[in-house]
Design goal:
mainly alpha, 4 helices
Amino acid sequence: MKFLGNIIWLLLGGFATAMEYFTAGVALMLTIIGIPFGLQIMKIGILALWPFGSHVRRTEMAGGCLSTIMNLIWVIFFGIWIALTHVFFGVLLFITIIGIPWGKQHFKLAGIALTPFGRTIEPLLT
């Protein structure tokens, strides 16, 4: 079922969303200051490409000072808008019964969009 959910996700907007994240990540990485933020957007893009079965986990150093500062900068400039977009689409999908699984994936994306530093994505292996 996860495979089928991912295929439907890709066909109905997941591929386009992931490409937008990858494009934004490359654009941010053109500057030295933007490299860490571009890497985080790439991480979100990977999750947006194949969300069903993938898990977001905290890394061992998730509570570090640098991670906290970077997450704060991230939320102010990028994260809040990305998260609000995914929350909007998640709520929109939850209105219909059939859209609930896809809405859950948007909420997963909203969670990592708020604080991506100090988190890792474990992709679907099967």
